[in-house]
Amino acid sequence: MSGGATLAPTPAAPGLRLLLGARLRCLRNVADQTLRTAPLRAALIALFLLAIWTTLFALFDRVFLFLHMFREQSVVVIPYVFHIFFVAMTVLLAFSTAILAYSGLFVRPEPAWLLPSPVGPRSIVAAVFLEAMFFSSWALLLLGLPMMAALGRVEQLPWHFYLTFLGAFAAFIPIPGACGLLAAWAGAMWIPRSARRVYLLATAMALVGALAWWGRLWSHTGRDAEHWLTRFLSELAYLRSALLPSTWVTNAISRSLHARPAEAAFYLFVTAAHAAFLAWLAVGIVARWVQPAFGRAQSAPGRPLRGGGALTRWLTEALFRYLPAPQRCLILKDLRMFVRDPLQWSQLAILFGLLGLYLFYLPTVQPTAFSRPLQALVCFLNYGAVALILSTFTSRFVFPLISLEGRQMWLLGLWPLARRHVLWAKFDFALSVAAAAALVVTGLSIRALELPWMLSLVQVAATLSTCVGLVGLAIGLGARFPTYGEPSGARIAGGLGGTINLIVSMALVLTSLALMGAICFRSAYVLGSLERLDALNGALYLVQMVLGFGAGAGAMRIGVRHFSRAEF
Amino acid sequence: MSIVLERVTKTFDRKVAVERLSLEVRAGEVFAFLGPNGAGKTTTIKLMVGLLLPDEGSVFICGHRMGTDGRAAKAHLGYVPDQPFLYDKLTGREFLEFVANMYGLPRDEAWGRLTRFAERLRLEETLDRLTEGYSHGMKQKVALAAALLHEPRVLIVDEPMVGLDPWAARTVRELFRARANAGGTVFLSTHTLDVAEALADRIAIIHRGRIVAQGTLEELRRLRTEQQRLEDIFLTLTEEEAAVDDGRGRS
Fold this sequence. Notes:
Oligomer: heterodimer
Low-confidence stretches of chain B: none
Distance between the termini of chain B: 40 Å
Order of helices and strands of chain A: HHHHHHHHHHHHHHHHHHHHHHHH
Helix content of chain B: 40-55%
Radius of gyration of chain B: 19 Å
Strand order of the largest sheet of chain B: 6-7-8-3-9-10
Largest interface: A-B, 41 and 49 residues
């Protein structure tokens, strides 16, 4: 700057406070920016959150009211509900904190900039840890707070119950968080980058295995419901182990529930003490060895891909033979990017995998055959679950597909191919992936419910039309409201265009659900048969088809028109 | 000596990125570090700033050993990576204030330096916008200002001129020279040979993880008397070294 600049060594600055201050400033700026530039989106987010919380509150309220009717059983069952809830939360929080901490410490550019600065590694790790816990504990807050409010209302509990409940939450979160932080560090330290996908797959398989084993619990041992419940509860006895953090939190809440504040405080203290110790230990260990872990995570060179992508080439040739070669090229590129991005396929696999697992075990839960109304109801609910998962997938991963090509338009733009073919190739690809996953789950649903052929046909066709509608909306609106400069798919999906797509997609899903609900209800209660459609049901079915296919075709038409004239 | 690398070796998965590399950079000089793609430039820089730890050898910054005395060493460092990092959701001014706090600069002094850098680099108009909207050149200028804000004794910059317009490039060259004249050390890794030729007091050329030549421009010219331009010297040296390596590989 100037010739007379001083060169005195600079003192070390305060670390954690400074980093947290920057994060808070970023959050404030995001809030300001959202309110200023996209107030509609902010209002929608608030509205959806309120709707979700209210629905969950109503649901928990009903559950606890139901349990309240059976006073003796509820004494046993309510703690089990909390045991299961907190065990599930332990796994989910550890997993999500691990992913966020790994990204925060070893993937994002921030640590590469901060590590050479005088901010100590302990402050950097602590800031990432707190940030990861903040973002990963949303699920706990989303599910836990309405549960607390419902329980407090039904049991008419005093104010200190709410304090204990909130304290238990706050004390519990760092325990799985610390495990997640250590897992992220260990992953960077000892899992070579080239083998990471293998380990990820192995973990996913282990999770599915564990869930399958858990599903075994739901298989009935006889037709006696009491016998089934006794066995079920005894199988879950290990969840009540005194060594599990979930047990301490559950004990704190249940003691508070039964007006034993001293015992509740004791368990709260046990949880908080363990959380503080584990957090201190995990941050200390990771901070001590963060630099070697960072070096290994950054520097492991990628190995050549085995087979050079032959499988994806074969798949593309087999599935899209009907398309001209240039479009197949584009699809092959998209398929390879999809397969090599675990974020995309893992979300689809986990959501549909869980649904598939539930459907696989569904026939064994009910000792006797499904009644006709129950068949229709479960068929409707399954269709709803599939449609909601599909809309999540298309909004997050399919919508950004066109915007993400903006940076490649120097290449695609020179292709001897009309631009509309680019859009249709994207549509074919996304539809194939979405429909394959959705139809497999729908097939399992039909098998589980032993649906007659007519309702099976309705469910398959409804799923397919919803797929076409949602994929068409995502691609068409993605081309109509693109964000070409943005490299992050998540940000593209969260922009104005993404919000419009989300709203329209949800409207399509809700309308389709209403139509499907009407068909199922009329079949079960008005017609008394799931094997035929009357004129009204046939008309509803036709409207649903037209709605799905029409929404997809209309959005694609808008998208093609806009994309063909777009300048880059 | 401001920067000392003693027989540093770094290996990734059996691939040697840097091999027994020794280097000394004095206070008050601008040092250019050249090499083809994949030669080990960025690995060397990451070793110097403590992002990577050497498998063998040692790195010293202003007499402090990186690794065992890393915190003291880092207090003297300013670093601009090849992809400049800024917090997307902070304005340029907020980011620079954050950096000033990080290095414990008194508020008035930080404000004065920030204002001077903003004027010098013509940042005033954009400094109060979120950095997510900045062009690459603008990000590079803010990152450079951030690295210079605490007037480090050692400034390490990976590809300093990428994305800068000619006016900004000249200003940055002047800033580097001023820093060196004030007794600081500026270590540049670059592909822009003209910058190295015009600005550097000494130059090192790295190829396949080893230093193949170092010295002043005149000393490098004496190595290859028939060539006067740095570009020709660079191309000849790296080509010769590749031929020697290939010969070793065949034998």
